[in-house]
Amino acid sequence: MVLLVDRKFTADQLKVLRNQAYAEDLLTCLRIFKKWGYDIIWVDEGIDAMRAVKSYSSKLSLILMEASMPTRGTTMTRMIRLNPEATGIPVALMSAQFSTADLEEATKAGANECLPKPFSDPSQVELKLTAVREKTRQKSPPPQDRVSHILKELNRIDDLPVMAPVFSEIERLSRDPKATTEDYRAVIELDVAITSQLLRLSNSAAFSFTRKITSVTDAINLLGLRTVVNFVRTLSVIGSFRKYSRIPFAAQEFWLHAIACGVTARTLAARPEIQAALRSNDIDPFMAGMVHDIGKMVFGYFFTDLFQLVIDTAQGQGRSLYEIETDVLGITHAEVGAALAARWHLPESLAAVIGGHHAPPDDASPATALVHVADAACKAMGFAFKEKNPELFVSDAVLGRLGLKLPDLTSLLSGIESDVRTQITETFTAIFK
């Protein structure tokens, strides 16, 4: 079976257009596939192509794509390679506009062949496609560790976000049993931007101290070292994506949802009903809520056109982005986020929350359940990203991890919603002022 991604024509249309170069090129490909005796799936949109890859990954012997489709061929190739189920499918790109840079990008994305158009010698095209097809015989079974596979493929992206030096230094200190509070203060103050954000955040309505916090030392003394360190980690994650602001992605809406989830998670975690279920050494609820969707940032900035198609499909069908990603892409932002967390050496417990926040497994930690609940709650309050979910619903199994039932949660949220809304607004202003 072959997947052809290019402009679609009927047989009669191709006959009429056969003197046009692009029609002749398509006819050449169709003749080759017919000679091979392969069934052909022919689509002309990126979302349909990904749906076909998801549905027929075990049967596809070759994917041939026009590189200059609205959803770029290199973007599609990179997404196909991210999907562990499709990792071994040979991919060939064709274009009349390949530059040296395009060829390098296609190779890095994982394309097996690039065919310049128009095809001057159909026999050479067949030889090249045959060589690509032969790679099918070398296909290995899908990797069992999906996150490790995704991380390996993410490393193909040259411009993937990296953490600020302050983050690396904080992580180094966290592994040093001899590190002192003064060591942390000195490292944090080296990053002026993060220090400024930290102080604004510490003085926001989220904490409501009676006196103003004016230094990192003040923040550590009043909030505690662990809270300050988690703030720095969170602010480092946000800062790592700032340079991509030129790319058309709804960053403000995204971070407003992230902050809403973080504030809601922290507020819920402070309630006696939930506090008892959370382990004292578990991850920071605010940080977990803030970074739970970082996989969407990867999709939004590095797979922009394709992710927009996912958003459009979700909104058109009234479904969640997670559902469309699962059904169409075969890979979700939760999995990509967990892989990115591993790349950044975030705590494994935090990576587990990121990876499981949409569909907590049976053995999910209370922190994963908490972020899942906070995510649903802030969407119900209207703080969603590209999707609306006015009705609050959380399964009994997830609520059970927190010692709650749905009426308990509804009552809790009713009591804290006004305060949470104020904290969300002030926290957003403090971070992005």
How is the secondary structure organized here?
Elements: E1 2-5, H1 11-16, H2 21-36, E2 40-43, H3 46-56, E3 62-66, H4 73-82, E4 91-95, H5 100-109, E5 113-116, H6 122-134, H7 146-154, H8 165-174, H9 181-189, H10 192-202, H11 216-223, H12 225-240, H13 251-269, H14 272-275, H15 285-291, H16 294-302, H17 304-317, H18 321-329, H19 333-343, H20 348-356, H21 366-380, H22 396-401, H23 406-432
Parallel strand pairs: 1-2, 1-3, 3-4, 4-5
Summarize the structure.
With about 425 residues, the chain is mainly alpha-helical.
Shape: elongated
The third-level CATH topology of the largest domain is Hypothetical protein af1432
How many helix segments? Answer: 23
Outline the low-pLDDT stretches: none
Task: Please state the CA-atom Rg, rounded to the nearest Å.
Answer: 25 Å
How many separate structural domains?
A: 2
Range of helix content: 55-70%
Query: How do the helices and strands follow one another from N- to C-terminus?
Result: EHHEHEHEHEHHHHHHHHHHHHHHHHHH
Architecture of the largest domain in CATH?
Orthogonal Bundle
Distance between the termini: 54 Å
Strand count, sense and closure of the main sheet?
5 strands, parallel
Strand content bin: 5-15%
| Largest sheet: spatial strand order | 2-1-3-4-5
